[in-house]
Amino acid sequence: MPSSFKIKDRTFTPKGPYPIPGSTEEDAIFRKLAKDFALQYDKIFPDKHAPRTVLIIPSLSSDTDLLTKIKGAIHYEERMLCLLMLLRMPRTRVIYVTSIPVSESIVDYYLHLLPGIPGRHARERLTMLSCHDPSAKPLTQKILERPRLMERIRSLVPDPSCSHITAFISSDLEKTLAVRLGIPLFGTNPDKSYEGTKSGGRKNFRTAAIPLPDGFEDLTSKDEVIKCLTTLKTKYPELKKVVVKLNDGFSGDGNALYTYPLITSGDDTELVIREYFSRQFKPVATEITEEEFFRKFAEMGGIAEVFLEGEKITSPSVQCVISPNGHVEIVSTHDQILGGPGNQIYLGAAFPADEKYNIPLAESGRKVAEVLSQKGAIGRFAIDFLSVEQPDGSWIHHAIEINLRKGGTTHPLLTLQFLTDGIYDEKTGKYITASGNRRFYFASDNVVSEAYKGLTPDDLFDIAIFHGLMYDGATQEGVMFHLVGALSEFGKLGLVCVGSSPERAKEFYDRTIATLDQECEP
After folding, report:
1. In a shared domain, residues 372 and 290
2. Is residue 197 domain-resident?
3. Domain end marker among 381, 408, 429
4. pLDDT in tens, the chain (522 residues)
5. Please, what's the b/e burial string for 437-474 (b: 16 or more CB within 10 A of its CB; e: otherwise)?
6. Does a structural domain hold residue 275?
C-alpha cells in the first residue's frame, strides 16, 4: 500500500480521509509525491527492464464550453493511445482510462504496431477502463466521481513507488486525482498554471528576451480590449488586425480577430472602434457569440496583440521536456498547419520544421524552457511561434503562446519515436532513427469529410491494408491513424504520415486522402 502522509496531526492515505481540493494539505501531499517521483525518474525511467505502472489520463480538463465546439472532442482522448507503445518495455504495465470505451479494433491496431513484442504479451499488461459517460465533463472529474472506479485503479497499481500518472494536462482535477490515488503526476503543479496562459506566456517571453508581438496581457473586459485596440492603432497607424485571445483557449477556438474599420485623420480613434466593434470583431469558433466570448474573457482573462503579417510567414512550434530535476530537452520542432479565420485553428504539423530556421528556432524555445524550468515547470509542453522572413532571407521568430501541456504535436512525435527508436538533434535540426536514417512526417488531427461518416474502424483498416497505406516497420514508412473512434459519427480522423523525405511524407498524406475519397464515393 502507498505510504501515508501526516500533515497538521492528520493522516492521509489514498483511501482517505482526503484533504479538501485546493487546500494546503492537498498541495503538501502533491509536493511530497512529486519529490518521490524525481527519484523514480532518475532510477526507473532509464531502465527499460524496470517494473513500472503508467496510469494514462487523457482528460481535456479545459473549459467545457469551448471543448463542446470541437467536433468529436470526446474522441481526442484517443490521441494518447500512442502511449500504449510503452508496452514494448516487457515489465511495464499500462492503465488507460477514457470517458467511453475504445473499440477493441483500435486497441489491437496499436498493439500490432509494437516492435518486437507479441500482441498477447502486451495485452496481458494493458488494462483499458471506461467511465461509460459521454457527457462534456472532463474525464478526470468523471473518474473522481466514481469511487468504485478509483478503487479498481488502486488495485491495479502493485507498487506506487514505481508508478506515475501521465495526463494530457495538469489541472487542479489531475492534482486531486494524484493525491487521492497516492500516485505522482508527471506534470507541472497546477499552482503554476498561469505560466502557460496567454498572459503568463507573454511575460515569460519577455523574461527570455525573445521577440513577441506588441500587445497587452491580463485583460478582463471588452472595455479594456477596446482601449488596447485604440493604443495599438495609435502606435501603428497602418495596423489592420489584432488577435484577442482567451487565456486558456484550446486549439485556436479561444481566439478572435478584430479588423480595424476605416479611420481617417481627425477621427476619434476610440470612438470609431467602439461604434464598429461588433461588426469588426469575429470569434474564430463560429458557434461562439461576441457576448459568450467576453463572458469567458471576464472569467479567465486574456490578451490582445498585433496580428503579424508579412510576405512569407510560418507557424512553427518547439516541443520541450523538463525533467523533475529541471533538465531541459528540446525534443522537436514542427511547422504547424493552420486554417480557419485568420489561420487561427490548428490542423496539423510537418516534422521537423523547415531547415532554413529550425536550429535558431530551437534556440529560442530553449530560452523559454529555461525560464519555465527555473519557475518549477516539469513535463512535456510546446511553445508556438509566428516566423516572418526578412528581406535578407533571415527569419524573426515571434513567440505567440506556451501550451503547458501535451498538444497536437505530442502524439505524432511519440508515435515516431516508439516505432523507430530515434531522436531529434536540436543542434542539427534532424531526426535520426536507431538505424541511422532520417525520417519526416506530415500529421493532421483534422481530416474531415461528410463522406467518411459511417466508416467503422475495421472499414478504415481494411481500406488502408488493401491500398498499401499501413505503416511498414521494415521500411519505416507509411501511415498511422488516430482519432479513429470519431470516424463513423463525425467523419473525422487523424493521420501521421511518415516518409524518408518531406515530399514522401506529404505524398502518403495526399494518397490517403485520395484513397478515402475514392472509397467513399456515393
Report:
1. no
2. no
3. 429
4. 334 444 334 444 444 578 999 999 999 999 999 999 999 999 999 999 999 999 999 998 766 666 666 777 899 999 999 999 999 999 999 999 999 999 999 999 999 998 888 888 999 999 999 999 999 899 999 999 999 999 999 999 999 999 999 999 999 999 999 999 999 999 999 999 999 999 999 999 999 999 999 999 999 999 999 999 999 999 999 999 999 999 987 655 789 999 999 998 888 999 999 999 999 999 988 788 999 999 999 999 999 999 998 889 999 999 999 999 999 999 999 998 876 665 656 678 999 999 999 999 999 999 999 999 999 999 999 999 999 999 999 999 999 999 999 988 899 999 999 999 999 999 999 999 999 999 999 999 889 999 999 999 999 999 999 999 999 999 999 999 999 999 999 999 999 999 999 999 999 999 999 999 999 987
5. eebbbbbbbbbbeeebeebebebbbebbeebebbbeee
6. yes
DSSP state of 410: H
Secondary-structure breakdown of the chain: helix, strand, coil percentages, each rounded to the nearest 5: 40, 25, 35
Grid coordinates 494524484 are at which residue?
Answer: 178
CATH of the domain at 504: 3.30.310
Domain of residue 142 covers: 5-186
Residue among 384, 399, 379 at smallest CA distance from 329? 379
136 and 26 co-located in one domain: yes
Is 194 contained in some domain?
Answer: no
Structural domains of the chain, count: 4
Q: What is the value of pTM for the model shown?
A: 0.90
Quick one: 24 and 163 in the same domain? yes
Domain match, 410 and 316 both: yes
| Residue with grid cell 482517505, as numbered in its chain | 16
Same domain for 169 and 75: yes
d(CA 289, CA 101): 33
- Of 254, 286, 306, the domain-final residue: 306
Judgement on whether residues 159 and 35 belong to the same structural domain of the protein: yes
CA dihedral in degrees (279, 281, 285, 290; nearest 10)? -80
